[in-house]
Each structure stands twice: as structure tokens, then as C-alpha cells.
Design a protein that fits this description.
The protein is of the alpha/beta class. Residues 335-341 have low confidence and may be disordered. Strands 7, 8, 9, 10, 11, 12, 13, 14 and 15 form a nine-stranded mixed beta sheet that branches. Helix content is 37%, strand content 25%. The protein contains ten helices and 15 strands. The protein is globular and about 70 Å long.
Length: 341
């Protein structure tokens, strides 16, 4: 790659994650536009949104130019990095157009990477063939607190993993895919996972909440674990929590991952001669600057400091494939049982 920083960057999709997070959470660089303005290795040169008023508002806020179409953005602004923050059904076509553009050297896409695993794998193959990094914003992979959890699990700080429980809302392919990606990161990839949908509680949605059992095999560097995840009702409240219980300790990831707690096993202070979980140790109380971390990670890849983005097309395809497998099984849970002759 011949491009050098500062890289010319653009954002497609000027909604909440593309442009507006900072309006509700000032001081937290979590929108793509905000990240390109804040990162030392990038400059924001343009935005595009199908809603022209939204694009103009974003451009005015961030001090850049709004373009009337994707073609105009690519042809006139000539960005080198492009973020795809549009609705999921547009991800595949827009990411493909950006990857094929001569000026573009890298793409950062919101999750899920595509509507289908076929589209996602096609994009991954295209990025490989062009030798262009394709990052996907599974934001916890860019977060120092979650990276510490991953290291401690791999290093055996929790001992053999006994069981994992997780709760999520907003569908198996959307927030649920964050959960699936987190589990795959911590415990192993799709090749070692056996998934079983056990309850499908929202059959009116094209992206249902699904309760599922997932078992990861212990292979190579993979830790192995049995997990049960629960799809919950976002109309009641949002939740994204993960409990990891090992023989030597426990991790609790709560408040959407903002709060991370560890308890290690020691002598039971209430019952002499027994072992128990000890005092709570705080690893993290807030997850900040997720988009900025993603952009800086991608800049490091372009600079040759990293081989691949911390979250990339490979792990995005794993999460989407697991979600598809569970969704397919869940369809069967809603079908009437066959009458016994």
C-alpha cells in the first residue's frame, strides 16, 4: 500500500453510529465521523447519506462536505478509508463498491457485515484478493478492558472454564452477533462450536431473540467452554451481560460491557477449610472511544504495525454464520409438531 497518513476518510450513513453518538455522550469518541476527526492519522473529507438533510447536518457539524451519492463521494473526495454505517441491507453493495475503488485502501464496516453469510464471505474474499483491510466494528474487540479479559482467559487466570451465561436484546443477528463474536473470541471459532437453539420467543421478527446452547471444543489455543445465551425483550429494557465461571475465578461483564469485574478463588473467609470466590476486583467501569480505537487500529494496520484489524471480516463471518445456524434451527421451534399416526 502506497498511501501514507493522514489518510483521507469518509463516512457512508450519518445516523447515530455514523455521526451522532457524541450528541448524547459527549467526551466519548464513538461515532465514525468523530473518530476520523479525532484520530491523528486521518482527516474527514466527506460524508454521504440517502437522507440529504441528514448528510448536510453531519457535514456542517463535523466541518466537512456532504455528497449527493456514493459515486460522487468516491469520485470527488477520493477517500482512502471509508466507513459503512448505513442500514445492513446496503452494507454488501456499498462495501464492494468501496473496495473496488482505486483510491480506497481500507474499509471499516458496521456489523453485521452483510445480510447473509454468502454476501459476507464474498466481501471477505474480495478484500483478500485486493489486499485491502476490511475491518468490522465489533467494538469490544477494540476495547482495552475486553482485550484484558481475552488475555486472562487464554493465560488460564480463571482456570478451566466451567460455564458461561449471557443475556442480550435486539435480535440474534444484531446485538446477538456481538455476543456470538465475544464468545468466539474468548473460546474458539465456528469450526469448534456446536450450537443448539432451545427457545425462539419472538417469531414476528425477521431477527428474533433466541435462547441457545453453544459448546466450544478445547483445541489448540482455544480454551473451550459451554455457554447458554438468552435473547431478551428490548421493549422492557436493554441488556448485554456475560458471566464466565472458571475453576479459579469468575468474570462478570455488565452494563453493556462498560463494567468488568473479576473474582478469584481463595480461602473462604466465612467457612475455614473451604475455597470460595474472593473480593470483587474492578477491571473497567466505562468503555470509551470505541470508534476511535477502531480507526486507530486500522491506521496501525495500514502502517504495517499490525497484520490485520483486531476485528475483521474473518471473525465477522464466524459471528454471522453462527447467527444463521441458530436462526435456521429456531424456525423449526415455531413449526407445529407433526401429528403422530
Amino acid at each position: 500500500m502506497t498511501a501514507t497518513p493522514p489518510y483521507r476518510a469518509a463516512v457512508i450513513g450519518c445516523g447515530y453510529i455514523g455521526s451522532r453518538v457524541e450528541e448524547l455522550a459527549p467526551g466519548n469518541v464513538a461515532s465514525h465521523a468523530g473518530a476520523y476527526k479525532a484520530a491523528t492519522g486521518t482527516e474527514l473529507v466527506g460524508v454521504f447519506d440517502a437522507d440529504a438533510e441528514r448528510a448536510q447536518a453531519a457535514a456542517a457539524h463535523w466541518g466537512t462536505t456532504a455528497f449527493p451519492s456514493l459515486e460522487a463521494l468516491l469520485g470527488e473526495a477520493k477517500p482512502q478509508i471509508v466507513s459503512i454505517c448505513s442500514p445492513t441491507e446496503f452494507h454488501a453493495a456499498q462495501a464492494e463498491a468501496c473496495l473496488k475503488d482505486e483510491a480506497v485502501v481500507a474499509v471499516l464496516a458496521e456489523k453485521p457485515l452483510a445480510v447473509s453469510i454468502t454476501e459476507a464471505k464474498s466481501l471477505a474474499a474480495l478484500a483478500r484478493s485486493l489486499a485491502k483491510p476490511l475491518a468490522v466494528n465489533y467494538s469490544r474487540r477494540f476495547d482495552p478492558g475486553h482485550q484484558q479479559v481475552a488475555r486472562e482467559i487464554r493465560d488460564g487466570k480463571l482456570g478451566r472454564i466451567q460455564h458461561v451465561s449471557g443475556w442480550y436484546t435486539k435480535g440474534i443477528r444484531h446485538n446477538g452477533s456481538h455476543m456470538l463474536d465475544l464468545l468466539s473470541w474468548f473460546f474458539g471459532g465456528v469450526a469448534s462450536a456446536e450450537v443448539t437453539a432451545v427457545h425462539h420467543w419472538n417469531d414476528q421478527s425477521d431477527d428474533p431473540g433466541i435462547d441457545a446452547d453453544i459448546e466450544y471444543s478445547s483445541q489448540g489455543d482455544e480454551t473451550g467452554a459451554r455457554a447458554r445465551i438468552f435473547g431478551c425483550d428490548a421493549a422492557a429494557h436493554n441488556i448485554f451481560e456475560l458471566f464466565i465461571l472458571g475453576e479459579a475465578g469468575r468474570m462478570r461483564l455488565s452494563e453493556g460491557g462498560h463494567r468488568i469485574e473479576r473474582q478469584l478463588v481463595g480461602d473462604d473467609r466465612h467457612n475455614p477449610g473451604y475455597r470460595a470466590l474472593g473480593p470483587v476486583e474492578i477491571i473497567q467501569t466505562v468503555m470509551k472511544d470505541s470508534a476511535l480505537n477502531a480507526v486507530e487500529d486500522l491506521v496501525a494496520v495500514l502502517a504495517g504495525q499490525r497484520d490485520a484489524p483486531a476485528s475483521n471480516a474473518k471473525n465477522a463471518c464466524i459471528a454471522l454464520e453462527l447467527a444463521d445456524r441458530l436462526a435456521s434451527q429456531a424456525i423449526d421451534l415455531t413449526r407445529p409438531a407433526k401429528a403422530v399416526p
